[in-house]
Amino acid sequence: MIKATNISFSYGEKPILEAASFLVGNNQKVGLVGPNGAGKSTLFNIIAGREAPEAGNIDVLGIVELVPQEVKRDPILENSQSIRSYIDCASQKQDYELRKILDGLEAVDLKLDDKPFNLSGGQKTKLAIARALLLEPDILLLDYPTNFLDSSGKKWVMNFLANYPKTVIIISHDLALLNHVIDKILCFNMHTHAIDEYTGNYQNYLKLKKQNDELLKRRIINEQKHIARLVEATHKVGVKQRITLQNRIARLQDKLPELPKELRSLRMRLPEPAHVGELPIMIKEIYKSYDGKPVLYNVSLSIGKGERIALIGPNGAGKSTFIKTALGVIKPDRGYIIKDDNLKIGYYSQEFEQFNFDQNLFDFVTDKTHQPEWLVRGILGKFMFSGSKIYQSIGTLSGGEKTRLAIALLLTDNNNLLVLDEPTTYLDVLSQRIILESLKAYNGAMLVVSHTPEFIAQLEPHRALFLPSNRISYWELEMAQRVGEM
């Protein structure tokens, strides 16, 4: 059980929680939701005892195990001699039981005797999830547990958590997971900095929240009309009455709540892509193997000017290898790539290699874009960075905020081909909408990989390349065929 009473927490002058209270009962399945940067991971750290609230009390009964969204530096993992010793630290399970968990998490290529130290971030996260599931804590905290999984892995996690006999709290933007497993939603209220509680799954939460937001919107509109009438009245009264009215107007404006970002219209104006020929890039008959194992086999793809291509396939199908080959990061064993002389590629990856984590957002974007202050502020504002947030160091941003910043940088340049490798991984629903609308406003060519089918469908690509089958299909025909099969 978790009982929070009037807890408060802040980063500098930025409030995360103010007198927030909530209750999580034994064996409940809870979804923790809120915009990127709201403080979801911070609350997990408070529940796990890694952070302490500045005020209030939080009582946590039972053993807690936390799996963060990114596992990069875990001393227990790094010092483990094998995957077996890391995920089964008490040596209580048979190898087939460990194998079942790893296979469910799509870690089929990992061997129990392998050392985990040199694995990728995604593989380490899968191992951390496996370890937490095998420990069977009283309270299991999972921060984006399906980020590195395709559809089969997500279904396995959903089924496992649905049958988990103890308390689970999940941060995720995987709507299927939140609708299948969850019986309660805890939501960060960005206006009051409290935690709102909703009974039921994510779909029920959306319905109730929409009703609340519409009520708030009507209230704000009515209060704005009332203020406008008072302003008009100040022109018709004497000096003393005018001062009284102006003071009253000021008090009303101070109390007027801010309209939620999700209720505002989203408009994006982007630079025109640099001039390029009708066929910016042509990839012909690519082969690539690792340690004798073929990853890409005779793959070809030509991307036309302004064309959107979706790259579809399960984990291990070679999507990232194909992208890196197209970018020239790795060389194919056979095949060739022809690029237009004016090709200018903007590349997004989940590693954020281009970031200086010690710089604040404003200085970093200014240095990268060489744009004037007013334009940099406009760029950051469009992607939900405003006020004192623009002077926050990049290293303190959440994964979703880093994604928004990376996409903002790509779209403020005049690239004529964007290559996006899982741009929705850490994004909340509102951030996904902002990124989607900005990409739809982009006039250049695009190659996109995403495990979020709704995002790909709304982006409306012209064609899709399916790996490992190497099949290319027009997207409209593909969707029509799938609907016909349903």
Descriptive key words:
486 residues, alpha/beta, six-stranded mixed sheet, globular
Care to describe what's here?
By secondary structure, the chain is of the alpha/beta class. It is built from 16 helices and 18 strands. Helix 6 packs parallel to helix 7, helix 8 (202-233) packs antiparallel against helix 9 (239-255) and helix 11 packs across helix 12. The longest helix is centred in the middle third of the chain and has 32 residues, at 202-233. The two termini are 43 Å apart.
Q: How does the major sheet shape up?
A: 6 strands, mixed
C-alpha geometry? globular
Low-confidence stretches: none
> Helical region count?
16
Structural class: alpha/beta
Helical content stands at 25-40%
Give the neighbour order of strands across the main sheet: 5-6-7-3-8-9
Number of beta-strand segments = 18
What percent strand? Answer: 15-25%
Average pLDDT, all residues: 85
Distance between the termini: 43 Å
What is the CA-atom radius of gyration, in angstroms?
25 Å
Quick overview:
By secondary structure, the chain is an alpha/beta fold. It has helices spanning 40-47, 75-78, 83-87, 95-104, 121-135, 151-162, 175-181, 202-233, 239-255, 319-327, 361-369, 373-382, 399-411, 429-440, 453-459, 475-485, and strands at 2-11, 14-24, 29-33, 55-60, 64-67, 139-143, 167-171, 184-189, 194-199, 281-290, 293-303, 308-312, 334-339, 345-348, 417-421, 445-449, 463-466, 471-474.
